[in-house]
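User: Quick sanity check before I run a bigger batch. Here is a single chain. Can you write out its predicted 3D structure?
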Amino acid sequence: MTEINTPLAGLDAIDWAELEHAYGPADDVPGQLRDLCAEDVEARRKALHALYGNIFHQGSRYPASAAAVPFLARMAADVSLPDRDEYLALLAALAIGYDEAHLPVGLDVAGWRRELAEFRLRDPEDIRAEFDAWLEAATEEGERRVREMRRAMFDHERQLAAAEAELGAYDAVGGQLPTLYALLGDDDPAVRAATAYLLAWFPEEAPDSLPRLLGVLDGESEPAVVATALVSAGLLGGAGLVERLTSFLTVGEPVVRWAAATALARLGAAGAECAVSAGVLAELAAAEAEPPEPGVLFHEGDLRGYAATSLTLLVDRFPKEALDAVTDGLSATSGPASFPVAAAALRLAFGEPGPNGLPEFDELAEQQQRLIRTLGSLDADTWRWANFCEIVREWGLPQQREAMRVYAGIPKE
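Assistant: Done. Predicted structure follows.
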């Protein structure tokens, strides 16, 4: 393939060996980018897998990540290439990491920039002193070991470089948005949906992107695209969108109703009080009981998990109903799908996690007891996940299934 006037133009002008990714010099990235343009399906699959492993390694980004962005953006815009929605999804990952870290309220990019600016100015010795005080405050041996490990791993220079690379990748993707807006009208609905999803993470660009997302709602017939545009608009917009989005709560497609409720819950949390309605609660509760068919990229397609986090935004107005809905959803989960739902249920039941644990089971309110029994009734495979045990530990609950069942008074199996 000639690379003049193609998505790969300029690829060899970059000294990739001088750029780093997760495994060292990034001299393998040009070949992987070329393979994304290949006719061979297996070659494209392997290249995409490799890029998720090296320039996006378990959510981390590197200097090579930003360098790859313009090529991925041009591939996404080249209608002669396949898999363009996959390249848009990779661009979103390079920009923000895993999206669940920013849901349900959206990306606080101003806070991100402020934190990095403050970190640049901090004396590493002051940070180490804070680690020492944090370590000293540990109240139990397991927590002390975790804090000791984190203290030992602290490396100011390395962490600053990593933070710079992450924001650098974000800004590199943001710089490509003007060339990607047109993809909201692409012939491929998967490309349209992936573009709408990508726009959700750039609030600084909302003056340009939000009108385009609202335009999608006027003419789009594909439910997954409409749903994605609704959620993205809700993450970017303000109270002025409430009336426009509320009408989608009554359409026929469940995924569109879920998306409208998701957007309105976020707008309610952002200060649009009228957005928090019984209709929003009903749709999110319905998604806990039986989530719509996956069709959106948000929360990796886990609509029950996303609905659970959105229901935490309704706690002030519907505390009982929201907790009941999320507890119902938790009872239907297993394995990793239980993680966001369990965290949301515990937050609804007990507020933010604290160091003092919970009182005796008999002292808990009825809804709280029901949640604890639900946690203890989840299958053993769920309890084998360290992620799940860490979630319950945050609220001072037993970290073994049998101990939770004893605490809840559930008969031994």
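Strands lie at 20-21, 24-25.

User: Great, the batch can go ahead then.
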